[in-house]
Design a protein that fits this description.
274 residues; alpha/beta; five-stranded mixed sheet
Length: 274
């Protein structure tokens, strides 16, 4: 069968999901809808680990000859590399599983794909051009921060973010680039100390514009929690671009996972595993 012929296959776009924030599922539905529109696969389904429809339920309903599970996750971390594959019966370290009715393929997470570098840069350029007051910051006069979650449960969780910062530093488009984290050092609030420029752009390396990106990070960047919560209640952006804090001008971008080109990254992950 030709490498790009997926007419017999079902694609499952798998998200972490949340019972606390309905926005966390939006990118899964966004990218699944786009891939469904392209008509490449026999079917495209949405599934989640923490909310309905759950991945085990969706798999139980399918009988396609080939089933590709594409995790819409940022890193090869605790869930995408260990918990979920093990729960679905994939042998240790193996991304392929054969059942009496189907061949299952568990793809690599989208966040570690090389195309994510350009998506991060696109997010940074987008927020700078949309909010040029007092003028659009020149990259050479700007420090770029990639804000990730981080966790002490799995050391691989931070590696995807650190690699991106290293690659972008090597491109020398920006004055500097750093990885900062919610739950590990260096923390997001350290960006003011790390930045050697007046201009700062923060790109959240998260899948969804959910609680972490809309509430936690703006507060860590210095926006009063009360104001952030008021803006959330009024469905307003929780960060005004640019905002001055600690004598720095800060532009805060949208999460990378909602960028439309993520659908292409998902497709690349499927092609890689064939």
């Amino acid at each position: 069968m030709p490498r790009d012929n997926f007419s017999d296959a079902t694609l499952i776009v798998l998200g972490h999901g949340s019972t606390k924030n309905d926005q966390s599922s939006a990118p899964v539905y966004q990218h699944a809808a786009e891939l469904r529109r392209r008509g490449i696969f026999a079917a495209v389904r949405e599934a989640f680990w923490k909310q309905e429809p759950q991945i085990k339920t969706v798999l139980a309903e399918l009988s396609a000859p080939r089933i590709f599970i594409a995790p819409l996750f940022i890193s090869e971390g605790h869930f995408s590399s260990d918990i979920i594959p093990r729960a679905l019966g994939f042998p240790g370290g193996n991304s392929k599983l054969e059942t009496p009715s189907s061949k299952l393929f568990f793809c690599q997470p989208i966040g570690t794909h090389k195309a994510m570098t350009e998506i991060i840069l696109a997010r940074a350029r987008e927020v700078a051009s949309r909010f040029p007051f007092p003028r659009a910051p020149k990259p050479a006069e700007t420090t770029l921060f990639i804000a990730g979650h981080g966790t002490e449960q799995n050391e691989n969780s931070r590696q995807a973010i650190e690699r991106q910062a290293e690659w972008i530093r090597g491109m020398k488009e920006y004055a500097d680039a750093h990885a900062v984290f919610l739950e590990e050092q260096p923390r997001i609030e350290k960006c003011y100390e790390l930045a050697g420029t007046r201009n700062i752009i923060v790109v959240p390396f998260f899948i969804s514009d959910g609680m972490h990106t809309q509430e936690d990070i703006p507060v860590l960047l210095g926006e009063p929690k009360r104001i952030v919560q008021e803006r959330l209640a009024n469905r307003q952006p929780t960060w005004r671009n640019p905002t001055e804090r600690h004598e720095k001008l800060v532009w805060y971008a949208a999460a990378v996972g909602t960028e439309p080109r993520i659908a292409d990254v998902i497709l690349e992950r499927v092609r890689e595993i064939c």
